[in-house]
Amino acid sequence: MEQAYRYRFYPTPEQETLLRRTMGCARLVYNRALAVRTEAWYERQEKVDYIKTSSMLTAWKKQEDLQFLNEVSSVALQQGLRHLQKAFTNFFAGRAKYPNFKKRHNGGSAEFTKAAFRWKGGSVFLAKCVEPLPIRTSRPLPKGCSPSTITVKLSPCGRWHVSLLVDNPDIQPLPTCSKSLGLDVGITSLLTTSDGDKVTNPRHFKRHRQKLKRVQKSLSRKKKGSLNRHKARVKVALYGGKIADSRKDFLHKLTTQLVRENQTIVVEDLAVKNMVKNPKLAQSISDATWGEFVRQLEYKCQWYGRTLVKIDRWFPSSKRCGHCGHIVESLPLDVREWDCPKCGTHHDRDINAARNILAAGHAVAVCEANIRPDDHKEEGQLQKTRKRKVGVQKAEGFPRRSPNFSREGRKQKPKS
Predict the structure, then answer these.
(1) pLDDT per residue as tens digits for the range 256-266
(2) 313 assigned to some structural domain
(3) Residue 370 confidence class, pLDDT cut points 50, 70, 90
(4) Which of 21, 73, 230, 402 is deepest in the core (most CB within 10 A)?
(5) Position 79 pLDDT exceeds 60
(6) For the residues 117-129, what does the mean pLDDT come to?
């Protein structure tokens, strides 16, 4: 299993100058290639792939005004082009939006393969660097493992991190157990289990909201391009980094505990991107990070030999009575407890949903049962999304028509 070990390091002034120059060149090559690919399609209907952009990079290095590209490692520049190709692949597959240009104030990153670094005695020697990177190792790498890829990243607040990707043989499946668990995610309680336990939502953003608001207000008053504005921007980035680190630390501890204690975990396949379009709940849903929670469960279950089952998002887990199976017509979000009108059983909304999710997960895992409601039909957005994905999979280059043209191919009239 591949695993990334992330450490913080403090480069020397010479190393910092070289790394910043490498990240700047990689960002320049990425943005130029993106502009070329976009312009080639919308102006000449020409498809440009990774091979063509790689040839363009060779020509750019020969230009007089771009001679500085030869002063950094060529591997980092080539990896930037590969990342751009992967971004377009994800776009055409419907997994991501159209690639954006990289900005300097967002930090930067540079990826090095085995041809651009040397691993010796637990130290990393990057290309064109004489001294090893001064890494603060918080945990050792597995014995006998050497990194296959090294990524150096500069955060917006000025912190340097290095990520070492290794093939870890120590990751082995855990001993099997008979326990299964259904999980219902929420906002007040981040997690409700089918056993009746509730995990309180720590609300990391809300705890730092006032401090973040104060430094953002101070940033808005600074003159653009001034040194004081740069200092204020770093303070904003520091608070944003604190929120992100606290979220990641909490989710890693929670998901690791769940995977170790349960053999089968059942969750709902929620469309978080659609749910955050609700302006009243967007901030709370984003702060809960449901998508990151499920992502960590997926790869940790794969690591340790556990089973993760996703049930259909349209399954009425909250409105279905877990005792008799009766489904109520409506159940507003402010109703946290309810009584079944058929059997009279009193339900806690979240616990009942978690138990129904577990039961539906067993049905899906055992016999692949259809848990979609009988009266539900795939109409509207679901049907259009399926057609759109099929069309995208057939496309090999850029979109077939410009955004300025209608679906029939005629040019749209400008809005008055």
Answers:
(1) 999 999 999 99
(2) yes
(3) low
(4) 73
(5) yes
(6) 90
184 tagged catalytic: yes
Q: Which domain holds residue 13?
A: 2-167
By the 8 A CB rule, do 123 and 133 touch?
yes
Catalytic residue among 2, 287, 350, 378: 350
The answer to whether residues 157 and 191 belong to one domain is no
User: Do the bridges between strand 337-339 and strand 108-113 make them parallel or antiparallel, or are there none, so unpaired?
Assistant: unpaired
Catalytic residue among 184, 348, 368, 408: 184
At 25 the pLDDT is: 95
Active-site pick, 14, 268, 292, 374:
268
* pLDDT confidence of residue 371: 54
Strands 180-185 and 108-113: what pairing? Answer: unpaired
Neighbours of 401 (CB within 10 A): 13
CATH number, residue 347: 3.30.420
Sign of CA dihedral 341, 345, 347, 353: negative
Structure tokens at 19: 């790394």
* Alpha carbon distance 79, 73 (integer Å): 10
* 374 has catalytic annotation: no
pLDDT of 412 strictly over 60: no
Structure tokens at 247: 């979220």
| pLDDT over 80 at 61, yes or no | yes
My answer on whether 137 and 96 are in the same domain is: yes
Identify whether 350 is a catalytic site residue: yes
